[in-house]
Design brief:
Elements: H1 2-29, H2 37-48, H3 51-71, H4 76-82, H5 86-98, H6 104-122
Helix pairs in contact: 1-3, 1-5
Length: about 120
């Protein structure tokens, strides 16, 4: 039970943290102005020089291996819905780490997802 909770926390918090870091790197890198192979390679090169990309990739790697370990003893039909709590962590992280604004409609959707996770956990 404790191992399960730790693995879920790693998947949800560390994995979403990794996505937030990659998002920050891409904000700093800039947008792809034209979809041309040369421009895409240039953008990728700039992104790979960002520390946030590498921090994000490391965090997402930890989350991925935590997911593999969790799936070795829990069913996919339980694990996948519970990891949907990452929507909540992502919204909160987007506000505080990336300075995003989250509309009330998104909060309603996130609330519904959290309600669904509660139902899944309660019926385990």
């Amino acid at each position: 039970m404790i191992l399960e909770a730790i693995l879920f926390a790693l998947i949800i918090v560390v994995g979403t943290g990794g996505e937030l870091c990659v998002g920050r790197a891409m904000q700093e890198t800039g947008q792809l102005e034209r979809f041309r192979p040369g421009a895409a390679v240039s953008l990728l090169g700039r992104a790979l020089r960002s520390k946030w990309i590498w921090i994000g990739v490391a965090m997402m790697t930890i989350a991925f291996f935590s997911l593999l370990l969790l799936l070795s003893f829990e069913s996919v039909s339980f694990v996948v819905p519970v990891t949907a709590l990452s929507y909540l962590v992502g919204a909160v992280g987007g506000i505080f780490f990336l300075g995003e604004k989250v509309a009330w409609q998104r909060w309603v959707g996130i609330g519904l997802v959290c309600l669904g996770v509660t139902i899944v956990v309660a019926t385990k």
